[in-house]
Amino acid sequence: MNNLKSIPRIVPLALVMLMPVFAHAQMNHAMQPGMNMASDTSMTEGEIRKIDKELGKVTIKHGPIRNLDMAAMTMVFNVKDRSLLDKVKAGDKVRFVVVMDAGKMVITDLQPVE
Questions:
Q1: How far, in Å, CA of 89 to CA of 57, rounded?
Q2: DSSP per residue over 2-70, as a string?
Q3: I need a labelling partner for 14 at 20 to 30 A (CA). Which of 32, 57, 67, 113 fits?
Q4: Global pTM?
Q5: Is 112 within 8 Å of 94 (Cβ atoms)?
Q6: How far apart are CA 83 and CA 61, in angstroms?
Q7: Radius of gyration, alpha carbons of the chain
Q8: Helix (H, G, I), strand (E, B) or coil at 80
């Protein structure tokens, strides 16, 4: 019976402890599949490592992608329009825009750096 008396004190404490969890879920809401990131479409610098025109994919060694809060790394991206791949080749330095589209990272702009 003594345990029942402590419930009114425990419930508010539990809610206070869960507040950071709720805040984190709110902040990451934009990362859910099918949702697009904020409209920050800043250019990211990188270097083309591999191109697969048939699949519409490109491997890029890139710097930090600010609009996706992503660290520098090498990874494969889908391109929104395969004709973007006609402007570049492996080894080219590039600037590009990548956004989340239906849960996938998609390059919407790709420009060689001269």
A1: 12
A2: HHHHHHHHHHHHHHHHHHHHHHHHHHGGGGSTT-PPPS----EEEEEEEEETTTTEEEEEE--BGGGTB
A3: 32
A4: 0.65
A5: yes
A6: 20
A7: 22
A8: coil
Among 55, 66, 53, 59, smallest CA distance to 94 is for 59
Q: Both 19 and 66 in a single domain?
A: no
Please answer whether residues 107 and 77 qualify as being in contact, where contact means their C-beta atoms are separated by less than 8 angstroms: yes
27-54 tens-digit pLDDT: 444 444 444 444 456 899 999 999 999 9
pLDDT tens string 77-100: 999 999 999 999 999 999 999 999
Yes or no: say if 92 and 111 are a contact pair by the CB < 8 Å rule. no
Look-up of token digits 């004709």 = 83
Number of domains composing the chain: 2
